[in-house]
Design a protein that fits this description.
2 copies of one chain form a homodimer. Chain A is an alpha/beta fold. Chain A has a 6-stranded parallel β-sheet with strand order 2-1-3-4-5-11, with helices on both faces. A 4-stranded parallel β-sheet of chain A has the order 7-6-8-9, with helices on both faces. Chain A has a two-stranded antiparallel sheet with strand order 10-12. In chain A, helix 11 links the parallel strand 8 and strand 9. Chain A is elongated. Chains A and B meet through helix 4, helix 5, strand 2 and helix 12 of A and helix 4, helix 5, strand 2 and helix 12 of B. Strand 2 of chain A pairs antiparallel with strand 2 of chain B, so a sheet runs across the interface. Chain A binds a DNA duplex through helix 2 and helix 4.
DNA sequence: TTGTAGGCGTTATCAC
DNA sequence: GTGATAACGCCTACAA
């Protein structure tokens, strides 16, 4: 390990030579091809084992033009959202016999493009999550002929996309808060430019306009993390804004706001009801009302779909939408 | 995307032909080799762009015998531990110009071995976390000559390993609980066979023997998830065991126990103090005392070290230990 | 500065 | 059933 005895790894040729057969036969034996006599097969297996021979996957994929790997390019996602997504991707990939080539922490177009480019030839297709980039721009810079599936990108008829129904999810949450009798409902949105954030804010506005037309509409911007959620609520109150409910664009910000409120003597949900979006495990423990988005399922479906695209049987429809469910917990139970 | 115009991706040969030069020159131009006249370089770049040419990384790595990718094989880790680890790995990998080939959910030897085998030829080395497998067994089945770094495996002078100092961490937690005046301290251990679990249990026993020799020692087994933590505490109390403190082998189980206790009318830390291990973000929010293990740092260091091994300058020492810190929060603050 | 040609480790198409 | 041998796409001496 790290200093194995043979400075040079055994190749198919080494096995062939020692077994006294041709490389073609070794290849057949190793891949379980039927037309190899039991005798030769045994001999080859023995030699292979003694040499600790492992086929070179890179060479193999170059030869058969198939890597059995899929690339995954992600932005800098938060804790459990990230792990759930990757878990979903990895599980399904494993089931389908694919490896996962991961590249996260990619924000801007250049990084995403570079990540995908360097993957060409080592993956059969890629799954990209870049909610901050316009599909057109993105598509224009990707390697031609590489099956690509977009996660949580703008709906669009030209490229395969899977995403959450953010807007109707946000409508459901907001409507729930309105149903509680709250009127001073503020929305802590995600970063400007982020599509999910924008769609959720749109849902909030739509619901307010429809179900509480006379109530004030207040949107402030956060950065999807807990600190910015806390800061947003603090600033609003400091500015004298009346608040009896908070709908944050994701759970982490909601948790920041919720925690801050309690630490500053405000009762939740008594004085302020709080709701988030995502349903990360933390939400369960803190009793946070939220929209459950089934992140792992998203990952699994993405892999399934991409695999189909790779195999050439890309189902007709480009757009696939996953509907989130409202989960009511203590933070809005009065 | 998924249906690009050219059914066949452009290769270096296509570029060469259209630019009226040899493939060698294109290769040099693409790789920024100095000895290419500005004219030719320009022409080549233009053609490459027009063809949307992206080098085939697989072929390239076969040729230069370097993939710029590292494999990561993990067991089925829980939420934030997983995400923090992968984040740390990925960040450092990105900095060093490596891709990450991920394969998680691997429990038994066969799976781990297979995962690593199928990675040969597509990665330059692997990082393996398999706390349930003996190093000797594992090492025997790995492809020869593949740089390998083990995470949280048994200490050992023959193979490079990075791991937490589980035992002294457990001693610190237990000692803290004893210092609180608690005497009926139970330990909810991880799955038998898991090395981290075993070391932490050992630390608990050692601390009890040394600092509270007359107090009862109670160890029950959990599965590292919240439900088993809750069940463990419930069963202990149902059996009439006296309990005034719980030290769980990881945070998820501690959280399960803590939540169960509160839901069943037991005050924490009043009647029962609770402590965990890992310091996942959730612990912060629930005020759980725990050992902080800097998971992301572990990942980063692992990549750094493996990269060094790949480059052949493997530092002398095989074993690298990361010491965790005690973080005291409400769950043991009286 | 540029081209020729061999090789990286496998697979697959032919023959035999 | 087995063996040559030509790909796969790229890199790199070695020549020119």
């Amino acid at each position: 390990m790290g200093n194995g005895k043979p400075p040079h790894n055994a190749t198919i040729r080494d096995v062939a030579r020692l077994a006294g057969v041709s490389v073609a036969t070794v290849s057949r034996a190793v891949n379980g091809h039927p037309s190899v006599s039991p005798d030769t097969r045994d001999r080859i297996n023995r030699v292979a084992e003694s040499l600790n021979y492992t086929p070179h996957a890179g060479a193999r994929s170059l030869s058969i033009a198939k890597t059995q790997a899929i690339g995954v390019v992600l932005p800098d996602l938060f804790g459990e959202f990230f792990s759930e997504l990757v878990r979903g991707l990895d599980r399904r990939a494993g089931e389908l016999g694919y490896h996962l080539m991961l590249s996260s922490l990619h924000a801007d177009l250049a990084r995403v493009t570079r990540a995908v480019s360097t993957m060409r030839g080592r993956v059969d297709g890629v799954i990209i999550m870049a909610p901050q980039l316009p599909v057109k721009t993105l598509a224009a810079t990707l390697p031609a002929g590489m099956p690509t599936l977009l996660l949580n990108s703008e709906r669009n008829r030209t490229h395969p996309v899977i995403s959450f129904d953010n807007q109707s999810g946000a409508v459901a949450v907001t409507r729930h808060l309105i149903g509680l009798g709250r009127r001073h409902i503020v929305h802590i949105a995600g970063p400007a430019g982020n599509l999910d954030a924008r769609e959720r804010a749109d849902g909030y506005r739509r619901a307010m306009a429809e179900f509480a037309p006379d109530a004030p509409v207040t949107v402030v911007e956060g950065r999807f993390d807990d600190l910015s959620g806390a800061a947003a609520l603090r600033d609003l109150l400091a500015a004298g804004t009346q608040v009896d409910a908070v709908f944050a664009a994701n759970d982490m910000m909601a948790i920041g706001a919720l925690t801050w409120a309690r630490q500053n003597g405000l009762s939740v949900p008594g004085q302020i009801a709080v709701a988030g979006f995502d349903d990360i495990p933390l939400a369960h423990y803190l009793g946070l009302t939220t929209m459950r988005v089934h992140v792992a399922e998203l990952g699994g479906r993405a892999v399934t779909r991409l695999a189909a695209m790779i195999d050439g049987d890309d189902a007709g429809k480009k757009l696939e939408i996953i509907t989130p469910d409202l989960v009511i917990r203590e933070s809005t139970r009065q």
